[in-house]
Design a protein that fits this description.
Largest sheet: 5 strands, mixed
Number of helices: 26
Structural class: alpha/beta
Shape: globular
Bound molecules: zinc ion
Number of strands: 16
CATH topology of the domain at 121-252: Neutral Protease, domain 2
Radius of gyration: 25 Å
Helix content: 40-55%
Length: 686
């Protein structure tokens, strides 16, 4: 039950079998003008689930309530869904394109639960991934269809790498089907949700999408109205496909991110291309030894003329042009392709076909080729990320050795090619131009000091910006939209690429670009452009940043969701003053430590600020411990989210790691911890 004084938006949806469903959206008073997009997204979700999964809504009424004080994003209850306002409210003046995309995703997610979660539910809490992994996969496929397929996938991979992989490498590592828990609240994790979705996606890839759909039909009809287990789900897939998934089921019981080491060999005389894949998985708490996993490995080979080669395995008699799915089961597998006329560049783990860490020694030339013309969006982006990382590594090593750093022109040329003839999917282009996160770089370049990585990355971005100044200026100009804002994925692409160009131009220390960004931040007719410009100014110690931030608050102080954006922007700055800004903001009249959205915006964002949270004097860690103790007394579900980055102390260098451990020990000494926080702190310190 939900009680309160709400405004109501009403609509209807006609189902597949011609029934009329009444749709009710309840909003807190005064926000009636911000619910239209959520309603539209709901109707799109209902139609999509009918078309893609044959699922029709079963009741006559579907209700949604949006509230501003809520720990989670949303909660599915049969017929009455409760949402955090963050995933409902939108109008062009206050919501960004990314907000629109997230609203559509979360509305879809909760709606899809009507079948995967409500009609068929979990036998017990250990089965949480049965409904969450499956429903996350369904919302991901929905987003791929509604937006840019490649970008949707890349964004999911970023979430996996920045949140799930560290969890899988930390003290709380658990299989997607946990074996035990003190507080189930602590298992609403990236592993249960996002890795759970990856596991079901692998089933879909191994079976093919058509057979997977048959498996889903079987699952929905066979278990309708029941409370079932992950084994039942796998059994349904086996029944519909005739494929044995016994070994595959290990994914439900083994924690940790598997590592694939890939080697290739081209034989010019025999015209064969051989690929050797070795799998392993690092130990995780309670699981020293791992068994080999069954997984799909999607591969393509790219020739010099930028085209996918035709692939035929030695022991098969049919060929395929484009992507081939290889099935990996043993610790080491070898595959040989025949009739390969030239030494190709391998496009590996296409569409991120398995949630693994893939290691392969690419040359920078191969990466540049893949960045230019891989037909798989994920691999194309991945090639760029690897090329950027290689260049950062070389520059960082030169800096550390006191030598003069040189930026490899192959990267600058690669970026120049991309922006001088922009591709059709500008959303994808904007992703290709973004450097890997500091967190990702730190994990992959553990021998290099964090500050040096940051220095190298900054220097390279600046060099790219200066060398390609004219091209970025043109890119910016060509993508300005002069009409009123409307959200759709095409226009979203124009705005993304324009703001990306602005980001690069601001790497110059030039007053005229500061002014350009300031004007956009204060005068644009939509939040996406205002916030994009603020983001571009956010890392610069210039007066235009201060002025723009002050004006932004002045203008939006009565819009709580926008004030949260303002908090998170300041908490994510790379400026050295950020910790003092965060401390000041904790006492800002708009900040309420009892409001989960405020805490996520300011403190969780700061915890993800790799450079400044991990300041070498440990100040960031101390600040976090103080706040965690305050929050835990009132809201353990939130304190456990805030403490998260401290638990990853083993993944940092020894100096920082020791300081983080000390901070955790300070928490452990408190005798007032909630059960939730106690479970996490005790597992992390031990
Ligand atoms: Zn859910």
């Amino acid at each position: 039950m939900v009680a309160g004084d709400f405004d109501l938006i009403q609509d209807t949806f006609i189902t597949l079998s011609n029934r009329t469903i009444d749709l009710y959206l309840y909003l807190e008073k005064g926000f009636r003008d911000q619910g239209d997009y959520a309603m539209l997204a709901l109707k799109k979700s209902m139609k999509w689930d009918e078309e893609k999964f044959g699922r029709e809504y079963d009741l006559n009424r579907y209700m949604t309530v949006a509230v501003s004080d809520f720990n989670m994003g949303a909660m599915e209850n049969k017929g009455l869904n409760i949402f955090n306002t963050k995933y409902i409210l939108a109008k062009p003046q206050t919501a960004t394109d990314t907000d629109y995309i997230n609203i559509e995703r979360v509305i879809g997610h909760e709606y899809f639960h009507n079948w995967s979660g409500n009609r068929i539910t979990c036998r017990d809490w250990f089965q949480l991934t049965l409904k969450e992994g499956l429903t996350v996969l369904r919302d991901q496929l929905f987003t791929e269809d509604m937006t840019s397929q490649g970008v949707a996938r890349i964004d999911v991979v970023n979430t996996m790498r920045n949140h799930q992989f560290p969890e899988d490498a930390g003290p709380m590592a658990h299989p997607i089907r946990p074996e035990s828990y003190l507080k189930i609240d602590n298992f609403y994790t990236a592993t249960v949700y996002e890795k759970g979705a990856e596991v079901i996606r692998m089933v879909r890839t191994l079976l093919t999408p058509d057979i997977f759909r048959k498996g889903m039909d079987y699952y929905f009809s066979h278990y309708d109205g029941q409370a079932v287990t992950t084994e039942d789900f796998i059994a349904a897939m086996e029944a519909a496909s005739g494929k044995e998934l016994t070994q595959f089921s290990r994914w439900y019981h083994q924690a940790g991110t598997p590592v694939l080491r890939v080697k290739t060999k081209y034989d010019a005389n025999k015209k064969t291309y051989t690929i050797i894949i070795k799998q392993s998985c690092p130990p995780t708490p309670g699981q020293e030894n791992k068994l080999p996993l069954h997984l799909p490995f999607a591969i393509g080979l790219i020739g010099k003329n930028c085209e996918d080669l035709t692939l035929q395995l030695q022991d098969e008699n049919k060929s395929v042009k484009g992507t081939k799915i290889l099935e990996i089961k043993k610790l080491e597998e070898t595959f040989t392709f025949v009739d390969i006329a030239e030494n190709p560049a391998p496009s590996l783990l296409r569409h991120f076909s398995a949630p693994v860490e893939m290691q392969y020694d690419y040359t920078n030339e191969e990466l540049a080729l893949l960045l230019r013309c891989d037909s798989d969006a994920f691999c194309r982006w991945e090639a760029g990320q690897r090329l950027m990382m290689n260049v950062i590594k070389a520059v960082a090593e030169a800096i550390a050795a006191g030598k003069n750093p040189v930026v490899d022109p192959i990267l600058i040329n690669g970026i120049h090619q991309l922006i001088s003839k922009p591709m059709r999917d500008l959303n994808l282009l904007s992703r290709l131009l973004m450097f890997p996160s500091l967190k990702y770089l730190l994990t992959h370049l553990p021998q290099i000091e964090l500050d040096v990585i940051f220095e190298a990355k900054t220097l390279i971005e600046k060099t790219v910006a200066e060398t390609l100044k004219e091209a970025f200026e043109k890119l910016l100009k060509d993508n300005i939209l002069f009409h009123d804002y409307v959200y759709n994925i095409i226009e979203c692409g124009h705005r993304r690429i324009k703001n990306c160009a602005l980001y690069y131009l601001l790497k110059h220390d030039k007053e005229k670009y500061h002014l350009l960004a300031f004007e956009q931040a204060t005068q644009a007719n939509n939040m996406t452009d205002q916030f994009g410009a603020l983001g571009a100014l956010n890392d610069l110690a210039v007066s235009h940043r201060e002025k723009a931030l002050a004006q932004f608050y002045e203008r939006y102080q009565h819009e709580p969701l926008v004030v949260n954006k303002w908090f998170s922007l300041q908490a994510s700055s790379t400026l050295p003053t950020v910790i003092n800004e965060v401390k000041k903001l904790l006492h800002h009249p708009a900040f309420d430590i009892n409001n989960p959205n405020n805490v996520y915006a300011l403190l969780v964002t700061f915890g993800q600020n790799t450079l400044r949270f991990h300041a070498k004097n440990g100040e960031g860690y101390q600040l976090m411990v103080d706040q965690v103790l305050l929050i835990d007394a009132k809201n353990p579900q939130v304190s456990t989210r805030v403490v998260q980055p401290l638990t990853q102390w083993k993944q940092m260098d020894s100096v920082r790691g020791a300081l983080m451990k000390q901070a955790l020990q300070r928490l452990a000494q408190s005798n007032k911890l909630s059960d939730n926080l106690f479970e996490i702190v005790s597992k992390s310190v031990g």
